[in-house]
Design a protein that fits this description.
638 residues; alpha+beta; nine-stranded mixed β-sheet; 14 helices
Amino acid sequence: MNDATCLKSLLDARWIYFKEEAQEDEYSEYKVSFRSPKCQKGTLLIGCDSDAQVLLNGKLVYFGASPSYPDHPIFDKVEVELQEGENEAFLTLYYFGSADFSSYCKGKAGLVFAFLSEEGETLCRSGEGVLSRLCPTYRSHRKKAISPQLGYSYAYDFKGRGKEGGWSSSCLLRREGQGEFRINERCRFLSRPSYEWTRVGKGHYLLDFRKETVGHLDVDFNSPVPQRILVCYAEHRNEDLSLPYRIENRDFSVELFAQKGRNVFLDTFRRLGFRYLEIIAEEDLEISYFGVTEIAYPFRVKERKLEDPLLQKIHDVCVYTLSCCYHSHYEDCPWREQCLYAMDSYNQAISGFVCFENLEQLKSSLLLISQDERKDRLLSICSPSQSYLTIPSFSLFYFKSVALYGRKSGDVEFLKRVYPKLKSILSSFEERIEDGLLYTFDAPGTWNFYEWASGLEGGLNQKQFKRADLLLNSLFLWALDGFESIEDQLGTPHDSGAFRQRNRERIRETLLKDGAFLFSQEDPFLSQYANSCAVLMGYFTPEEARNLETRLKTSEGMVPCTLSSKPFLYDALLKIDPKNASWVIEDIKKTHGKMLEGGATTFYETELGAEDFNGAGSLCHGWSSYPLAFFEKLGLYL
């Protein structure tokens, strides 16, 4: 059955909820029976806000709804096995319901589903006849935040298992918004990874999984008494074998309320990223397994080999880092945020195309970003979200990502679909141009961030100022390159030559000093990132760029690049002289080799690793896999 036929079947169903008014951080359950005339392969169609789990005849057949915007719901189509005669479906729905986090855009609670036969006949659909109730196992309304990005943690109560009563007819809801089926694939459960464990004290255990691990909590243990168990997770540990699971306003822990005897549980609602688990119980546990079932996107990995063993190791760890940082969409890190940023995902995409055959993972992320709507026409800091924050420079990376996907895929129809969004974003920048210079945004909610380096952090939640800085102007020209590439593919050429010439003249007049460009007149420091971009965008003459080469390599007198901006430095040096390829490779060896020497199994957010951001630095971050792009560019793969 094609998507159009399935979508019609799903739209014939009704959105339901277990009560008329939903509350934040709420779990509910639904059950329905239906008959199938034979054993057959059927189809489950489902959509929800915010996430759902489906058991069919006692077997888990669905979890992991795709994050979406309320007016663009993303539905799923899943093949299921139907048994002859009676079939029983049991669904659990989680409603996030908060507008305060940057990984979710608040919509109305609800669930819609249908079961179809092999021939496409509707055997069952959501409606008033579906029985529902408040979930007795997952505890609702606790609103225990993990981080400002991730949202809420959970508590699971084993005593709610098998609870009878409380069922009633579902409430019908009115929902608007044009939905469509998921473009990318769904994640797969893999297996239970092994670990080393240490008994720290009574009821207190530390589990070391020996690598960065991403999965859902999976436990099977006996408890001598009913008791509360705190499960903490982290990417590094303290010297006393405890975990730093509370960092400032973050709390990386979930809770289990065990019953006496055996307790078996596999969560499907909260993906965890970590290396270590800490179990804190009141009494000792008899553990059969206490860990996670790993989860991964079904990437088709290219076989790539390098002659140098260290570069091969860096390649392998980059690939694993990328795989840990893509599930429903590109995400910056699997531990602390799991957010889709336009800048981070560009770095992930240029590397992902080297090691993965897939194209759909970038397309689905770009489509999701395109559905973000703000009055200022910029992109929200993350998608999907309702965050008041926007990072203007990140909106410019979106142009290059779309252009990259267009070149790799030849998908002109997709380019046509997002083209109006690109035009809208572009217009918001064009309105900030005065006499050839692009000025920064200074409205409330703006964050003029570029990278985690002195002078470039932008002052989160601080007053922003209007100024013409080198980086925003350079990145705007870079985005124009992407936009013009897209227009070439669409056959609608765009000529920005006059603006480019005037912009180059004005930047040179106002910011060039002693052979390098100041960041801005108001902030007259030198940035390695900004001057690298100035080389790439032609602000320097070829002779001036050659004279700057040594300073770029040493960052002498400059704020040095961080891991997120090193690709610009490398590209600038290669533009100045292709012979700088050897320097680029040696710098990758030095930077990433140091992380490996420190025991890294994935590459860090910044070179300081866990020590950065007051102990909240991520040890797994997608943007740090950029070496793959340069191994490809420099022809190092055998």
